[in-house]
Amino acid sequence: MLKIFFSVNHSGCSWWRSRQPARMMEKLGLADVRIFSQYAVARDDVGGMLEWSDFIVSQSPCGADAVALIMQYQRMGKVVVVDYDDLVYSCSPFNPAYKTLGLRDVKIKDVEGVEQWLWEDGKHGFSIKDNYCRYRSQRDIIKIADGITVTNQFLKDCYLEENPGIEHKVGIFPNSVDFKLFKPFPKVDTGQIRIGWFASASHLSELWIVRNIFKKLFAKYNNKIKFVLQGDIRELCRVFTKEEVEYHPFIDLSVYPIKVAALNLDIGICPIVDDDFNRCKSALKWSEYASLGVPSVCSDLPPYSCVEDGKTGFLAKDEDAFVEKISLLIENEKLRKEIADNAFEKNYQDYNLEKNVVGLAKFYEDIYSRIR
Predict the structure, then answer these.
(1) HSE value, Cβ hemisphere, 13 Å, CA-based, for 324
(2) Residue 287 confidence (pLDDT) above 90
(3) Are 264 and 305 part of one and the same domain?
(4) The sheet that has 55-59: what strands, in order across it?
(5) C-alpha 246 chain-centroid distance
(6) pLDDT per residue over 189-218, tens digit each?
(7) Any idea what DSSP says for residue 184?
(8) What is the pLDDT of residue 178?
(9) 187 within domain boundaries
(10) Three-class DSSP category at 73
(11) 181 in a domain, yes or no?
(12) Neighbours of 7 (CB within 10 A)
């Protein structure tokens, strides 16, 4: 049985891609697992874990230090797999992460048409030179790592295009839900249809899309609906009244599944703008909604190609299509139930962590056998 050492941080990405799979592997007896939190483990403990392990999984490493660390692990006789769930160096300039990932200066026009800097090299901590070094280091990491896991085929193809010759060591592990953690609560009738959107600051590009969708929905349905926003984009609340929007900040991931179940949603939305960064994303939000018995309307883009329009969810090409298909769900309780049930079954079959982690463990074992 492999002895796997997971190096993690406190991000949502690490929770979904490392912490949850590691715990499920251990639960199913697929591997002997230890988790190293970069913020909560003493140096002596790290040394003990390294001595004990024969396989290391590193979540989204970048930078020259990460290159040196992986090479050191390999000199110690360890097999190293890295995981990426985003095409990180293609993120939108409106994503706060652009500060450490962006490779170009960016100017935008304000509402009066006046150009101003959004990102200018050398200002406010934005350094193209430093970011380019991180970008180059990620390419070095992909070359030297013994294995790489990604979330979907589109992301895999993007990494293969930039790094030809590595196909033999790249595996797809889809973002998957632990259905023992994500369980729906009994629905409470509030007299309104509660429509949810979960969004971190990385979704600032979608802010105007969501604003316009809900402006049209409130004009059509008034107080029949409630917009439930969870995440970092509190600024969006300013364009709606307190009666229209209900805001919830993100909370600790240990209680996140309970929190989202308690939101008592009737409908969820998954809008994204069409760019390479978003095309490489997964359908995780659709899966979260589905696990809680909530039907959703998603952008008609590659991350949601797994959604069967009208059966396991709805797909929308633009704002008007979002309004049209959300309206179908608002007005038809039976349809909401049918879509939610179908989406749950689809996710239970295809995006179930308990099932998919078996394939991930097999990938690790194959990598280890090939190297050793």
Answers:
(1) 10
(2) yes
(3) yes
(4) 32-37, 3-8, 55-59, 79-83, 147-150, 170-172
(5) 23
(6) 999 999 999 988 778 789 899 999 999 999
(7) P
(8) 98
(9) no
(10) helix
(11) no
(12) 23
Q: Which DSSP helix (H) or strand (E) runs through 147? A: strand 147-150
Q: Taking 60 as the threshold, does the pLDDT of residue 134 lie above it?
A: yes
* Average pLDDT value for the chain: 93
pLDDT digits (tens, 9 = 90+) for 329-367: 999 999 999 999 999 999 999 999 999 999 999 999 999
Considering the domain architecture, whether residues 264 and 331 belong to the same structural domain is answered as yes
Instruction: Count other C-beta atoms under 10 Å from residue 277's C-beta.
Output: 20
Residue 10 belongs to domain with CATH number: 3.40.50.2000
Could you give the CA distance from residue 111 to residue 92 in angstroms, rounded to a whole number? 20
Q: Would 358 be classed as within a structural domain? A: yes
- Model pLDDT, residue 200: 83
Q: Do residue 65 and residue 10 come from a single domain?
A: yes
User: What is the extent of the structural domain holding 244?
Assistant: 193-350
Q: Helices (H) and strands (E) in the chain — how many of each?
A: 14, 14
Find the farthest-apart pair of alpha carbons in the chain and give their distance in angstroms, rounded: 64
> Domains in the chain: how many in total?
3
Residue 317 sits at φ, ψ, to 5 deg, of -85, -25
Task: Grade residue 43 by pLDDT with cuts at 50, 70 and 90.
Answer: low
Complete DSSP assignment for 74-135? HHTT-EEEEE--S-GGG--TTSTTHHHH--S-EEEE-TTS-EEEEE-TTSTT--HHHHHHHH
Classify strands 267-270 and 296-299 as parallel, antiparallel or unpaired.
parallel
Residues 99 and 81 in one domain: no
Both 313 and 168 in a single domain? Answer: no
Residue 320: inside a domain, yes or no? yes
78 and 109 fall within a common domain: no
pTM above the 0.90 mark?
yes
DSSP letters along 297-337, please?
EEESSGGGTTS-BTTTBEEESSHHHHHHHHHHHHT-HHHHH
Whether residue 32 is found in the same domain as residue 134: yes
Beta-carbon contacts of residue 76 (< 8 Å; ≥ 6 apart):
50
Q: Do both 239 and 169 map to the same domain?
A: no
d(CA 369, CA 365): 6
